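Service request form, structural biology core

Requester: graduate student, group of Dr. S.
Request type: structure prediction, single chain
Budget code: on file
Notes: please return the result as structure tokens.

Sequence provided:
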Amino acid sequence: MRVLLLTQYFHPEMTAAPLRLRPFAAGLVELGHEVDVVCEIPNHPQGVVHGGYRGRPLVRRELDGARVSYVWVYASRSKRARARLANYATYAASATLIGGARRRPDVILASSPPLSVGPVGALLSKRFRVPWVLDVRDLWPEVAGVLGELSDPRVLRFSYWLERRLYRSAAAITTATEPFVDHIAGLTERAKVHLIPNGTTQMWVDLGAAEVDRAEVDLPADRFVWTYAGNVGLSQDLEVAVETAALLGEGFQLLILGDGASRGRLEERAAGLPDAQVTFRDSVPADRAARFMRASDALLVPLADDPALGKTIPIKLYDSCAVGRPVVVAAPGESRRLAANQGAGVAVPPGDPPALAEMIRRLASDPAFRDRVAEQGRSFAAQHLRERGVPRLEQILAEVAGR
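Core staff response, request fulfilled:
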């Protein structure tokens, strides 16, 4: 098959989208299919276009055997709704233009969020007279409304209307969690909604068996280092982690590895703490981030305490478990369930600095407990590899394409 993959975010951007979609694209290529990816010029989450992509309306590269077209978008450091909507709209326009000029595919796969990728899939489906599949990584506009990313009531009403239209328009829908399946099935036919869970990759599992010298990543040897690695955004509620660092005091260090809308505010809050209780590092490629995580004593996977966020499972939960360090899950819903029932770390209530501090202290003082949590998490991750979803995705695409 010839597959056209539409996604606003893709490698080398450090977000959940490429973590899910790059293994899908690479896996389909390995199975003998042709894959064209249309994504934005890399700029997220900082809003600054990466070197090598600036000043060009279109950049074409090959990645894992897939052809990738990086298209122009409006990029801005501003996190205001107007700038964000301009970014989404310009991707939709550019992707429609460039995607429409590609060779006719057999099937189109469009991944959301943002929800604005869906209309591109629907339009190009009509342009080429081929079916399209919607991949739902997170529920928009529900989560965007909760986080305040979409606050205008008119925009929210339109977004909810668009969500329903897209679910009904798509020939099939793939999504990442059971609560997502239930939500989508309530708005369209259940039979066309398919679960393809997230997971980790073999690279992360392999690293979990290797040792990393702390000096290599410049982490202190005389402190218990607990690390958050990923997008520093609103949904992570990392203010709780900074408050926890203040409660822990000397002998502990919180490392926040990544960038995002909340980082500036977090740095201001951490500035009043003694030196080295909270440190920040910029985003790094996944293999480098994995080395920071492996060199840490414990890892944090947080989400804000909201029912909408409780439906999701961050990909970083699987990757954190894979590297063989104990994972503390300070999140509601599905993430907490995996920690409690499947060994994906240990759970504490979200939004509760004293409870989080107590768990970090326990991990620091009890090596046997620490090792047990780490081994259970590593076993959980090894059973959940992203690549295992590729045959199911291939089957769904082939069925809607009539192949």
